[in-house]
Design the sequence.
């Protein structure tokens, strides 16, 4: 196995472990990190990241259902309308990405747009996380409202190629007053549907980018393995510990996004 292929696997594994613990899917780490290395096109990295996140979320959610794990905090009455909305948002986000990519003579320039958007989203989430004890959260109800919230999450995650990302935790915490670990479990459920919609849209519209199938297999394997390890670690961590991990990851992601925006702009 070459060093490059090994690093693809290592990034997907470590990102999925952190993603399973924090409920952010791992794509928010995989996407900017692989953009940083620049081994594949922006489109290929977005697709590979989405497949990895989908595999991790699928494992985590299916395990919760099979074991009927009530301790996970998964609330289907709230999260199912969110997931339904995220499907529509996921389709729209994929179309938005394709439309913007077509406007650039160099398709990789869309990577700069993604990096700047991800930086802005991450910065907002970081500020919210550091000050959430001062924020008066809501208890949103109603299927239509939840679907609209889910559509926004799906649009953002699909366009950025990050699966669910940190915005899921902020939105679930603010609109539904969920603590960090409960939001993480429900976030993965929403991510599962939004990523499924994004992947299916790519297949149906025949816009699958070129990539190595060896890399795809290893990244999906890393996603599933990360989901297994992440769930085990999550059960041993307190909300405060998850918050610290989440905050550290946000700072790292913002730094990578700044570099990626500069690199793609100068390309």
Sequence:
């Amino acid at each position: 196995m070459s060093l490059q292929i090994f690093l693809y696997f290592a990034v997907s594994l470590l990102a999925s472990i952190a993603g399973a613990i924090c409920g952010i899917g791992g794509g928010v780490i995989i996407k900017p990190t692989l953009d940083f290395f620049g081994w594949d096109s922006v489109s290929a990295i977005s697709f590979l990241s989405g497949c990895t996140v989908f595999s991790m979320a699928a494992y985590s959610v299916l395990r919760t259902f099979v074991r009927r794990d009530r301790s996970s905090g998964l609330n289907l009455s709230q999260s199912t309308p969110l997931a339904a909305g995220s499907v529509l948002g996921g389709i729209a986000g994929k179309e938005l990405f394709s439309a913007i990519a077509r406007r650039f003579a160099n398709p990789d320039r869309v990577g700069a747009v993604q990096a700047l958007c991800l930086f802005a989203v991450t910065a907002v989430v970081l500020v919210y996380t550091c000050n959430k004890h001062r924020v008066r959260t809501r208890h949103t109800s109603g299927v239509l409202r939840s679907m609209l919230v889910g559509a926004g999450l799906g649009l953002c995650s699909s366009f950025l190629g990050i699966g669910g990302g940190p915005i899921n935790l902020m939105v679930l915490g603010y609109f539904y007053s969920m603590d960090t670990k409960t939001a993480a479990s429900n976030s993965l459920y929403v991510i599962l549907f939004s990523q499924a919609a994004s992947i299916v849209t790519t297949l149906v519209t025949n816009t699958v980018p070129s990539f190595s199938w060896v890399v795809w297999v290893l990244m999906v394997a890393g996603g599933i393995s990360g989901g297994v390890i992440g769930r085990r670690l999550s059960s041993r961590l307190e909300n405060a510990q998850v918050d610290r991990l989440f905050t550290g990851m946000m700072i790292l992601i913002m730094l990578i996004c700044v570099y990626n925006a500069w690199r793609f702009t100068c390309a």
Remarks:
- The chain has ten helices and no strands.
- The longest helix spans residues 239-266.
- The chain has a mean pLDDT of 84.
- The CA atoms of residues 154 and 164 lie 7 Å apart.
